[in-house]
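To illustrate the input format used throughout this study, we show a single complete record. The first block contains the structure-token representation of the backbone; no residue identities are included at this stage. The design step must infer an amino acid for every position from geometry alone.
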């Protein structure tokens, strides 16, 4: 869950590396560092606890010359965040410097062995163990750095994306990956290296994605060479990036999160473009239609995901079961991979991940494939590991999401799941032509209704400061809106650090009602669809105990408005699409409460965007 940047070319490396670290800071921000081979062939490492800006301050009076370097921004796994545990890590002789994303699971065994051979360690990290192992193999066997890396990685158990440079060699970077992303940018007589494409797009749109257990030998003036750790040469097609540099800027917004909330209408139009025809009468989801027999004959669908994507999967369960009449189970990928699940060959597994690199979800995919199930991926990042490891799938097409708390990715995932459910339902004949047409037209209208929903921002901004005092929130929803309650609570927890829980509204009286008092804000998703009358009863139960009610209601609903202390109106829509609109006020409320509290909404404490470790 860290950010890796590397450069080898004709320009000064340091400015490129620092800018790249800023682009990747959403992946980890408790420490940062840079290693450079200077013009005199010396190897310099500078690192600092804190943000990338702290590294810049530390390095401003240091020698940062050189046209080759690697850099890293960290989210701690082994060892607390401090200057010593920050990357890059030197080898014992200080002739090698290495950066690493991932976890070396057998580091303790390797460390003890190296200690017996006279090695000492400065940090608490598994990363320092790996660079010491590489040096030991290199010096003992008198090998090149390339060969030493290959042999060391054969001994390493776990996940890694690494880059290594060495003193006295300003012309080479060795990089490798397994279960952690690494992309190489190919420019004019220069190469770029990064955890994802965001630091690269400013310089080139040509990239190569490394596969597991591959080592890249990047040398000045030579073609890129890629080999497996077993020394088998491989070739890769150069891909062209579709993102633009403007997508990585805040665009006048105070935070990336607010920008991404406001992008949702535009991004959902892009997610629907080409998938709903111009007459709004037909869904064409190629990933489903090309494998229609699999879906028509599926006995069960398993959805695996983590965090926000898991909440989207819960909505997908409602959608698929209602429209396609196929049983659906939604699993936390982190639990699924370890509980010896029953997976049949006629099951379909849908894996959902914004980044496409979520370690637990990737492991769940491998488990499903081993059992012979058909695996369908839903992902935002083109070229990520999940789309490369699934049988078919759909991109969400919402552009880079920089804010750690997911917003536009969530609504895009729900949109794609809606398209999947409609497509399967139509193929199976479970939807009448009339109902299918009505739903397709309504889904096509959602982006415009999102625009109207965003106009509630000022109203939410006005009342949000009232709730900064709160230490707890309860979110309630029924049916399709129960997962919305879970997602709303998660957003508040993530960025404001206020404890919040989501419940099915009917479950409130089975325990949580004991918490209701005048200090407890209760958020109720209460559209005029589904179990409307029962939701009114739930609100009355809260009011009878002096709870403060914030309701998300359908435009013009005076009954709910009178029952609520604060109400936010959303346009009327079909019950199944309410989550796409109701989630927006909940995102805005979490955002404004967090901002008033002075929290860093784009980089909340202890969190990182792409969870590439267990």
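Output of the design step:
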């Amino acid at each position: 869950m860290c950010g890796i940047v590397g450069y080898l070319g004709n320009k000064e490396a340091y400015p490129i590396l620092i800018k790249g670290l800023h682009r990747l800071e959403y992946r980890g921000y408790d420490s940062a560092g840079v290693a450079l081979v200077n013009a005199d062939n010396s190897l310099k490492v500078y690192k600092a606890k804190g943000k990338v800006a702290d590294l810049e301050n530390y390095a401003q009076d240091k020698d940062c010359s050189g046209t080759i370097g690697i850099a890293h921004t960290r989210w701690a796994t082994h060892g607390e965040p401090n200057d010593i545990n920050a990357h890059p890590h030197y080898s014992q002789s200080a002739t090698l410097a290495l950066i690493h994303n991932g976890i070396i699971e057998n580091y303790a065994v390797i460390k003890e062995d190296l200690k017996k051979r006279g090695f000492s360690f400065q940090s608490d990290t598994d990363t320092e163990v790996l660079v010491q192992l590489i040096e030991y193999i290199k010096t003992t066997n008198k090998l090149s750095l390339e060969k030493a890396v290959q042999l060391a990685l054969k001994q390493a158990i776990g996940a890694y994306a690494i880059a290594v440079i060495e003193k006295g060699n300003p012309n080479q970077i060795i990089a490798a990956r397994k279960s952690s992303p690494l992309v190489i940018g190919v420019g004019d007589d220069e190469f770029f290296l990064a955890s994802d494409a965001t630091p690269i797009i400013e310089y080139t749109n040509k990239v190569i994605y490394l596969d597991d257990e591959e080592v890249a030998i990047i040398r000045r003036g030579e073609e890129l060479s890629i080999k497996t750790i077993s020394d088998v040469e491989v070739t890769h097609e150069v891909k062209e990036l579709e993102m633009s540099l403007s997508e990585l800027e805040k665009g006048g917004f105070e935070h990336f999160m607010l920008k991404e909330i406001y992008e949702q209408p535009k991004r959902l139009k892009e997610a629907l473009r080409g998938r709903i025809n111009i007459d709004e009468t037909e869904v064409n989801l190629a990933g489903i239609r090309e494998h229609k027999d699999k879906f028509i004959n599926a006995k069960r669908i398993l959805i695996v995901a983590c965090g926000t994507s898991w909440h989207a999967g819960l909505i997908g369960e409602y959608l698929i079961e209602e429209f396609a009449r196929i049983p659906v189970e939604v699993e936390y990928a982190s639990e699924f991979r370890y509980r010896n699940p029953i997976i049949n060959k006629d099951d379909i597994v849908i894996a959902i991940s914004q980044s496409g690199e979520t370690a637990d979800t990737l492991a769940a995919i491998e488990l499903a494939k081993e059992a012979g199930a058909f695996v369908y991926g839903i992902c935002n990042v083109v070229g990520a590991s999940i789309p490369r490891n699934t049988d078919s799938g759909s991109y969400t097409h919402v552009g880079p999401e920089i804010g750690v708390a997911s917003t536009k990715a969530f609504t895009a995932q729900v949109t794609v799941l809606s398209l999947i459910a409609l497509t399967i339902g139509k193929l199976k004949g479970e939807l009448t032509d009339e109902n299918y047409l009505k739903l397709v037209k309504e889904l096509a209208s959602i982006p415009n209704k999102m625009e109207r929903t965003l106009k509630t921002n000022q109203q939410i901004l006005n009342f949000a400061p009232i709730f900064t005092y709160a230490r707890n929130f309860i979110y309630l929803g029924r049916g399709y809106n129960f997962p919305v309650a879970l997602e709303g609570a998660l957003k508040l927890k993530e960025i404001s650090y206020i404890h919040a829980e989501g419940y099915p509204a009917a479950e409130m009286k089975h325990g949580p009602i004991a918490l209701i008092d005048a200090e407890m804000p209760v958020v109720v998703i209460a559209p005029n669809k589904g179990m409307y009358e029962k939701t009114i009863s739930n609100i009355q139960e809260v009011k009878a105990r002096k709870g403060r009610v914030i309701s998300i209601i359908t435009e013009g609903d005076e009954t709910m408005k009178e029952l609520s202390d604060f109400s936010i109106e959303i346009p009327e829509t079909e019950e199944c699409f309410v989550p796409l609109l109701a989630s927006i006020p909940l995102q805005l409320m979490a955002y404004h409460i967090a901002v008033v509290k002075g929290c860093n909404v784009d980089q909340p404490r202890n969190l990182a965007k792409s969870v590439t470790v267990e």
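Structural context for interpreting the output: The first strand starts at residue 3 and ends at 8. The chain is about 35% helix and 25% strand.
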